[in-house]
């Protein structure tokens, strides 16, 4: 019966979850933690689909508007995985049917590990649909982004006098109110700087919810837009354009 299968799967998932937590506590390698977090997400997705009516499915993700790929497929000595970053900064497995807060990957260690290694895709594979990649040893994690300019999304601001913008899990860049800009797509961006010195991306997107909060400090004039912050008035660049090629 269906309920027996559901109970069996739930028990197996609980055992898997417990084992992964124990392994993660003992793991000295961040790469191991990354793999464990991903496999736990895949197991959780399997639990969600087990509560639905059985359907004929394939391990390949294919539709007319998306690339055809297989999560975890081996290419030479590498394995390939595929992800998606939303305009709110959530990270999902690309083939997740429901992309919301519940299905997003939330482990902060995993997110920090993933976003630290995120960079433009120069592998020669999947460039049309996945312009970014986060390498992990022999694994290549290809990434598509809701925003065409950048996969970096600042989803939170820290408190205190020296404020910073947060992306990934807990990664931060100093907030520079004089460097805010609005592209012709109407979105708000902030320069992206990290401590690697690699200049992986020029900009990070300010997530919609955070942009709304900052928007309360905007002053719109006839020709210019100003941002008020901590008693100072900064001009916002509203004429910036980026080449999407």
Task: Please render the helix and strand layout as text.
Layout: H1 2-26, H2 30-50, E1 60-63, E2 66-70, E3 73-75, E4 78-85, E5 91-93, H3 108-116, E6 119-120, E7 132-136, E8 139-145, E9 153-154, E10 156-157, E11 164-167, E12 171-174, E13 181-183, E14 188-191, E15 203-206, H4 208-215, E16 218-220, E17 225-229, E18 232-240
Parallel strand pairs: 4-8, 9-15, 13-18
Antiparallel strand pairs: 1-2, 3-4, 4-5, 6-7, 7-8, 10-11, 11-12, 13-14, 14-15, 16-17, 17-18
What does this structure look like?
There is one protein chain. This protein is α+β, with helices and mostly antiparallel strands. 26% of the residues lie in helices and 31% in strands. It is built from four helices and 18 strands. The strands form four sheets. It has a seven-stranded mixed β-sheet with strand order 9-15-14-13-18-17-16. Strands 3, 4, 5, 6, 7 and 8 form a six-stranded mixed β-sheet that branches. Strand 10 and strand 11 (164-167) form a beta hairpin. 21% of the residues are buried. The model is unreliable at 2-23, 25-30 and 42-64 (pLDDT under 50).
């Amino acid at each position: 019966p269906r309920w027996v299968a559901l109970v069996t799967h739930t028990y197996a998932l609980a055992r898997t979850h417990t084992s992964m937590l124990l392994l993660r506590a003992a793991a000295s390698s961040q790469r191991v933690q990354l793999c464990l977090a991903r496999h736990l997400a895949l197991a959780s997705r399997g639990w969600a689909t087990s509560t639905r009516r059985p359907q004929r499915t394939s391990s390949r993700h294919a539709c007319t508007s998306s690339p055809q790929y297989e999560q975890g497929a081996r290419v030479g000595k590498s394995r390939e995985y595929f992800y998606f970053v939303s305009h709110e900064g959530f990270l999902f497995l690309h083939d997740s049917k429901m992309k919301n807060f519940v299905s997003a990957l939330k482990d902060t260690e995993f997110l920090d590990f993933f976003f630290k290694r995120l960079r433009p895709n120069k592998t020669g594979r999947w460039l049309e649909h996945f312009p970014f990649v986060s390498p992990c040893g022999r694994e290549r994690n290809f990434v598509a982004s809701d925003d065409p300019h950048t996969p970096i999304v600042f989803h939170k601001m820290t408190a205190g006098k020296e404020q910073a913008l947060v992306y990934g899990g807990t990664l931060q860049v100093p907030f520079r109110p004089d460097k805010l800009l609005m592209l012709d797509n109407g979105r708000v961006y902030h320069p992206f700087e990290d401590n690697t010195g690699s200049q992986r991306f020029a900009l990070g997107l300010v997530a919609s919810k955070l942009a709304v909060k900052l928007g309360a400090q905007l002053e719109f004039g006839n020709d210019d837009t100003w941002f008020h912050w901590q008693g100072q008035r900064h001009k916002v660049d509203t004429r910036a354009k980026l080449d999407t090629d």
